[in-house]
Write a structure and sequence with these properties.
This protein is globular. The protein has 247 residues and is of the alpha/beta class. The chain has helices at 43-50, 73-82, 98-109, 114-127, 143-154, 173-188, 200-206, 224-229, 233-239; strands spanning 3-14, 17-28, 32-36, 58-63, 66-67, 83-86, 161-165, 192-196, 209-214, 217-223. The strands form two sheets. A six-stranded mixed sheet has the order 6-7-8-3-9-10, sandwiched between helices. The chain has a four-stranded antiparallel sheet with strand order 2-1-4-5, covered by helices on one side. Helix 3 crosses helix 4, helix 3 packs parallel to helix 5 (143-154) and helix 5 (143-154) packs parallel to helix 6. It has a single domain, classed as 3-Layer(aba) Sandwich (Rossmann fold), CATH 3.40.50. Strand 4 (58-63) and strand 5 form a beta hairpin.
């Protein structure tokens, strides 16, 4: 399988603390990679570093074998149409409708006609089961619907990679399953992804491999089966949810 994203020796200080001490991993074409670790382990910082929202202190990031961590801000615009970030909150614009939220990237970054944009937005809304919400405002949506609408906007430009920042956080089991269904649907379209989560059962349902960060380094990297079968006490307690999170 082709490596479409690779991180080599990434080091990052955040608020004076060395969060990443030399992170190394890769993402294969079409796979879903779970990124696990306790709060403060730098999972979201790592996602933001990949798309240039955080400057790294050392290391290299490659997209299709092209180094991207050293790009100027303007050069990152094109990368962000191919590597899309799905914010934890959904990050919708409060003042416009669901339809307009999803249409915004298409208006800003493509030359599509209004008719072509409308067709694409309606296709995306149908894909995630939100056709009836097209004219609603974000404030009219439930938390789960807001997250699904945010995911819809994140695929508007047909990215190759999606970075999910805890998309199931704070949701009830029904909405968690709806979000996981959306992720599975995107995966069936060939979109590769990194799925940051504290939700181990959710990771097991959608991920091909998982990474576990501990004290700034990759402690484990392997398949879901290897993760579940590991006899390592730390991995076992983490996967079973029996280890108390350090505050």
């Amino acid at each position: 399988m082709e490596k479409i994203l690779e991180i080599k020796g990434l080091k990052k200080k955040y608020e004076g603390k060395l969060v990443h001490k030399g992170i190394n991993f890769y993402l294969l074409k079409g796979e879903t990679l779970g990124l696990l670790g306790y709060s403060g382990s730098g999972k979201s910082v790592l996602l933001r570093s990949i798309i240039g929202l955080e400057d790294i202190d050392a290391g290299e990031i490659f997209y299709h074998n092209k180094r991207i961590d050293n790009l100027e801000e303007k050069q990152f615009y094109g990368i962000r149409t191919k590597i899309s970030y799905a914010f934890q909150s959904g990050a919708l614009f409060d003042s416009v409708s669901v339809f307009e939220n999803i249409a915004y990237p298409l208006l800003e970054h493509t030359d599509l006609s209004e008719q072509e944009i409308e067709k694409k937005v309606l296709e995306i809304l149908s894909l995630i089961g939100l056709s009836e919400a097209r004219d609603l405002m974000p404030s009219d949506l439930s938390g789960g619907m807001q997250k699904r609408a945010g995911l819809a906007r994140s695929i508007a430009l047909s990215p190759e990679i999606l970075l999910y920042d805890e998309p199931t956080a704070g949701l009830d089991p029904v909405n968690v399953d709806l979000i996981l269904d959306v992720i599975k649907t995107f995966k069936s379209k060939g979109i590769a992804s990194i799925f940051v989560t504290h939700d181990i059962p959710a990771a097991k349902k959608v991920c091909d491999r998982v990474l576990l960060i501990k004290e700034g380094e990759i402690y484990f990297m392997g398949s879901i089966a290897e993760f579940e079968m590991s006899q390592d006490p730390y991995i076992k307690s983490f996967s079973m949810g029996t280890m108390k999170e350090k505050l």
